[in-house]
Design brief:
Layout: E1 3-7, H1 11-23, E2 27-31, H2 34-42, E3 49-53, H3 61-70, E4 77-81, H4 86-94, E5 99-102, H5 107-124, E6 130-133, E7 136-139, E8 144-147, E9 150-152, H6 156-167, H7 175-183, H8 193-205, E10 214-217, E11 221-224
Parallel strand pairs: 1-2, 1-3, 3-4, 4-5
Antiparallel strand pairs: 6-7, 7-8, 8-9, 10-11
Helix pairs in contact: 2-3, 6-7
Length: 234
């Protein structure tokens, strides 16, 4: 599960970002001043991403970003600002921001930019050759899945879906995010295609096992993990 660090002093914007990103399955931390944001970023995990407002009390977003880069910290930075002229964008990018989004913005565009930055970071890190959750194993080189040592026959689309879920155990994926990552579209080309594929994966992966790995999070989407919570299955 990726960590999103939000540094934003506007309460309405901050609350909107925190609620929306948590609903998408991200772990979100919030700071409301520049110094608080700097301390939070310095303690960030390797998979974190920083959403940084330009105008902050105590330390501006530009100064915060410049400080992180001077310290050799390579956390991805997405800068937000109501100041969207070219000079502001250029300054932000020159001082180390990875992307710049002007306010107001569409939430879907924010999500797309976050995913692009996280994907870029993953591509720059060595890719694991296998993914494992409990006794479920996915060999990414051979695209071979097994559970408890037994091979699971999956189609190419099912393998792509499973890889997405296993790449971030515990992260909740909305149907829209699944469609975007697995089918390359934001619209369902068929009725409930995501739900159909979830049922297929459950039949092949969970059926016959005491622990169900694929969970439904009502009102949000799906996740895969080895927790034993009584999540409703639909």
């Amino acid at each position: 599960m990726n960590n999103i660090l939000v540094v934003e002093d506007d309460s309405r914007v901050a609350d909107f970002l925190v609620r929306g990103l948590r609903a998408e399955g991200y772990r979100v931390e919030l700071a409301r001043t520049g110094p608080e944001g700097l301390a939070m970023a310095r303690g960030a995990q390797a998979d974190a991403l920083l959403i940084l407002d330009l105008m902050l009390p105590g330390l501006s977003g530009l100064e915060l970003c410049q400080t992180l880069r001077a310290e050799g910290r390579h956390i991805p930075v997405l800068m937000l600002s109501a100041l969207s002229n070219t000079e502001d964008k250029v300054n932000g990018l020159r001082l180390g921001a990875d992307d710049y989004l002007g306010k107001p913005f569409a939430f879907e565009e924010l999500l797309a930019r976050i995913e692009a930055l996280l994907r870029r970071g993953r591509e720059q890190r060595p890719r694991a050759s296998t993914l494992q959750v409990a006794d479920l194993v996915l060999d990414l080189e051979r695209m071979h899945a097994s559970r408890a040592g037994q091979t699971i026959a999956l189609t190419a689309r099912e393998l792509a879906f499973l890889e997405l879920l296993m790449s971030a155990p515990g992260r909740v994926y909305s149907r829209e995010r699944i469609l975007s990552n697995v089918w390359g579209t934001n619209e369902d080309p068929l009725t409930n295609v995501v739900d159909v594929y979830v049922r297929r994966l459950r039949t092949k992966i969970d059926e016959g096992h005491a622990l169900a790995l694929i969970k439904t999070v009502r009102g949000f989407g799906y996740r895969l993990d080895a927790s034993t919570d009584a999540t409703p299955m639909v």
